[in-house]
């Protein structure tokens, strides 16, 4: 009889235990769901705050860009707007001077971009339908002459006036290049000729200025021929004539170097072959410095 009563009691306890486990499992699940919900809400709130900040930034940038564009328009018209105009545009904002600097900065960037598009040449409008193009020349970081061409743009593009040296083949370049469709290519070629010419001329000037022991025997207006006389040291010092020929008029380096001396073996000597290569690869005034240091010339 007692055993019969114990069996239902065990069943009840087992059932209660299962109910308790289910209840605990359900509580854990609810806690996890709640934590996920809270985390999701926090994430959404954080995203919302970030979007609000981004919106405010975009509004501020839009306002600043609008003010900057208006100020840039005023700057392009007047070139130097007064402070009152700037302050009126910005309603007395403390950032008016900053915006003015930004507007001038963008204007300068646009000018530099336009300058780059036309190849870096300065172009000024002339009376009538024409422009004046200035080509600056330089050598080893030193600015030298500036040459100008006045170009007529009516109907057919043509050069009306210029101060290009007469020995520069300007007419040949006009005929060979198509100024009507690619004037920048023509200007680039002309600039190359002019810079090469002033570079060769500057080298000649530096040879005369730096190297007292080297005598310039001959040169021409285009500086495409240069004959130097120097002394070659040795058991018996002898004079030598060195001729540099610049057959490529768009370059500053010679295309041919010859030497003449009473010592007929000098031209075929290994040392002269090395010196000849140096003169072909290095501007003459610097090559002579190296030759002196090596003892090739006195």
TrEMBL record:
Keywords: Centromere, Chromosome, Nucleus. InterPro entries: CENP-O. The keyword S-adenosyl-L-methionine does not apply. This is Centromere protein O. Signal peptide: none annotated. PANTHER family: CENTROMERE PROTEIN O (PTHR14582:SF1), INNER KINETOCHORE SUBUNIT MAL2 (PTHR14582). Its main location: nucleus. It is found in: Chromosome, Centromere; Nucleus. One of its GO terms (cellular component) is nucleus. The keyword Nucleus applies. CDD domains: DRWD-C_CENP-O, DRWD-N_CENP-O. It comes from the Eukaryota. Belongs to the CENP-O/MCM21 family.
């Amino acid at each position: 009889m007692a055993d019969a009563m114990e069996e239902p009691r065990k069943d009840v306890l087992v059932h209660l235990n299962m109910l308790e486990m289910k209840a605990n499992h359900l509580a854990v699940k609810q806690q996890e769901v709640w934590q996920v919900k809270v985390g999701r809400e926090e994430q959404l709130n954080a995203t919302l705050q970030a979007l609000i900040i981004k919106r405010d930034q975009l509004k501020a940038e839009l306002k600043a860009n609008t003010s900057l564009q208006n100020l840039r328009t005023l700057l392009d018209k007047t070139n130097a707007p007064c402070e009152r105009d700037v302050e009126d545009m910005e309603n007395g904002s403390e950032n008016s001077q900053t915006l003015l600097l930004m507007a001038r900065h963008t204007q300068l960037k646009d000018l530099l971009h336009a300058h780059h598009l036309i190849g870096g040449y300065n172009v000024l409008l002339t009376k009538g339908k024409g422009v004046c193009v200035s080509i600056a020349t330089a050598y080893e970081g030193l600015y030298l002459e500036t040459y100008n061409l006045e170009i007529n743009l009516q109907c057919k593009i043509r050069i009306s006036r210029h101060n290009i040296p007469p020995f520069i083949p300007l007419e040949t370049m006009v005929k060979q290049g198509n100024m009507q469709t690619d004037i920048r290519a023509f200007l680039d070629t002309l600039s190359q000729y002019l810079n090469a010419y002033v570079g060769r001329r500057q080298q000649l000037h530096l040879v005369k200025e730096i190297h007292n022991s080297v005598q310039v025997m001959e040169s021409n207006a285009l500086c495409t021929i240069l004959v130097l006389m120097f002394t070659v040291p040795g058991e018996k010092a002898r004079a030598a004539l060195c001729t540099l020929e610049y057959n490529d008029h768009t370059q500053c380096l010679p295309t041919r170097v010859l030497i003449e001396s009473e010592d007929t073996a000098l031209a075929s000597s290994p040392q002269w072959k090395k010196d000849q290569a140096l003169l072909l690869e290095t501007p003459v005034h610097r090559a002579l410095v190296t030759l002196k240091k090596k003892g090739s010339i006195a």
